[in-house]
Specification:
Layout (H helix, E strand, L loop, with lengths): L1 E7 L11 H4 L4 H15 L1 E7 L3 H14 L2 E5 L8 H12 L4 E5 L21 E4 L4 H14 L1
Parallel strand pairs: 1-2, 1-3, 3-4, 4-5
Bound molecules: 1,3,4-trihydroxy-5-OXO-cyclohexanecarboxylic acid.
Length: 147
């Protein structure tokens, strides 16, 4: 079965209470349940994780390469400045795996520092601005690409 790691970066464990007007009222558990349901519908083996720690996120991206798992990644604030995360993402797509960058909000419509994604250039594609639906769309894109 096609494996997908849904990886979430810093502060996304606070979903539900963190700026709900920007990120919505659903929690990380809701996000994980949405991904599990969508994965089951699409015949994907999906595992959702979240970390505030850059090294942990790098390790998970390396694991994706080694286990040949596709990736849905919300790098959160790392999006805007982490060349280490970018370089790890480049290993994922460089290995022929699909990596979809996801954002709940639309960073392009927010503060200027959010307009830069250092990850976008090494991602297969990006979905932003559709809340939890963005994760569903990303999983659909992976299912379509890997059939
Ligand atoms: C985010 C957007 C980022 O700018 C921000 O730092 C986040 C969440 C999003 O999902 O909209 O933490 O990635």
């Amino acid at each position: 079965m096609t494996r997908v790691l849904v990886l979430n970066g810093p502060n996304l464990g606070r979903l539900g209470t963190r700026e709900p007007e920007v990120y919505g009222s659903e929690t990380l558990a809701d996000l994980a349940a949405t991904c599990a349901r969508t994965g089951a519908d699409l015949d994907l083996e999906v595992e959702t994780r979240q970390t505030d720690d850059e090294a942990t996120l790098l390790g998970w991206l390396h694991e994706a390469v080694d286990s040949r798992s596709h990736v849905v990644l919300n790098p959160a604030a790392f999006t805007h400045y982490s060349y280490a995360v970018r370089d790890a993402c480049a290993q994922v797509t460089g290995a022929g795996l699909v990596l979809v960058e996801v954002h709940l909000s639309n960073p392009a419509a927010r503060e200027t520092f959010r307009h830069t994604s250092v990850v976008a250039g090494v991602s297969t594609g990006t979905v932003a601005g559709f809340g939890l639906d963005g994760y569903r769309l990303a999983l659909r894109a992976i299912a379509a690409r890997t059939r």
